[in-house]
Amino acid sequence: GAGVSQSPSNKVTEKGKDVELRCDPISGHTALYWYRQSLGQGLEFLIYFQGNSAPDKSGLPSDRFSAERTGGSVSTLTIQRTQQEDSAVYLCASSFGGAYNEQFFGPGTRLTVL
Amino acid sequence: AQRVTQPEKLLSVFKGAPVELKCNYSYSGSPELFWYVQYSRQRLQLLLRHISRESIKGFTADLNKGETSFHLKKPFAQEEDSAMYYCALKTSYDKVIFGPGTSLSVIP
């Protein structure tokens, strides 16, 4: 069916507020990834899931960031007490994993923290 | 440590000239390398992967384990090649990390 989708496409929030970003992966994809894309920083790895488990959370910038995945499908990335430096495009990708792993990316959520 | 570096943030070449985008990696295990591309106002997408030893849109990349490099090459650049290019490394357990990217501009 459809590719990876993300919502919202744009989010403007005030400093100190919490935000929740959603990712709907391609059906059947076991691996799901979150990245942050900002000017000059490229594509920064945040976290990835195998099924509902997150084997590597090392990329999360601080304890204000958390993510979960339920039912091996939808994932949410939550940022608490947002700061201006959190402003970026947050990308989600999914894949079948294993050999010949090709990631399919969503359109991203552009987060602006005022 | 697992790391991908792309030394050039910006690269400009004239149409018809050869182009090489550099990528180096640091990984103690057996690497799987990829090149992803993002055209203007489009999603990031896979360009090619070393394991397939393929040529896509005239681009090729060879994994050199001795130099820990995976440079992307094309003999004759086209205007439609202008885009952001990311080198990526797949490590254990399907973790994939990306380099900082190189913005390629092909001058008509």
> Helical residue percent of chain B?
under 10%
Count the DSSP helices of chain B. 0
SSE ordering of chain A: EEEEEEEEEEE
Mean of all residue-level pLDDT scores of chain B = 93
Give the helices and strands of chain B as they follow along the chain. EEEEEEEEEEE
What does the oligomeric state look like here?
A: heterodimer
Q: Can you tell me the residue ranges of chain B where pLDDT is under 50 for at least 5 consecutive residues?
A: none
Supply Rg of chain A.
Answer: 13 Å
Give the end-to-end Cα distance of chain B, rounded to a whole number of Å: 40 Å
Main β-sheet of chain A: number of strands, strand sense, barrel status? Answer: 7 strands, mixed
* SS content category of chain B: mainly beta
Descriptive account of the structure:
The complex is a heterodimer of chains A (114) and B (108). By secondary structure, chain A is mainly β. Chain A is built from no helices and eleven strands. In chain A, strand 5 (42-50) and strand 6 (53-56) form a beta hairpin. In chain A, 32% of the residues are buried. With 108 residues, chain B is an all-beta fold. Chain B has strands at residues 3-5, 10-14, 19-21, 24-26, 32-38, 45-49, 60-61, 72-74, 83-90, 96-98, 102-107. The chains are: A mainly beta (114), B mainly beta (108). Chain A binds chain B through residues 3, 31, 33, 35, 40-45, 48, 50, 55-56, 91, 93, 95, 97-108, and chain B through 6, 9, 32, 34, 36, 43-46, 49, 51-52, 86, 90, 93-101.
Short summary:
The complex is a heterodimer of chains A (114) and B (108). Chain A has 114 residues and is mostly beta strands.
Search tags:
heterodimer, A: 114 residues, mainly beta, seven-stranded mixed sheet, 11 strands, 0% helix, globular, B: 108 residues, six-stranded mixed sheet, 44% strand
SSE inventory with pairings:
The complex is a heterodimer of chains A (114) and B (108).
Chain A: E1 5-7, E2 10-13, E3 19-24, E4 31-38, E5 42-50, E6 53-56, E7 65-69, E8 75-79, E9 88-95, E10 104-105, E11 109-113
Parallel strand pairs in A: 2-11
Antiparallel strand pairs in A: 1-3, 3-8, 4-5, 4-9, 5-6, 7-8, 9-10, 9-11
Chain B: E1 3-5, E2 10-14, E3 19-21, E4 24-26, E5 32-38, E6 45-49, E7 60-61, E8 72-74, E9 83-90, E10 96-98, E11 102-107
Parallel strand pairs in B: 2-11
Antiparallel strand pairs in B: 1-4, 3-8, 5-6, 5-9, 7-8, 9-10, 9-11
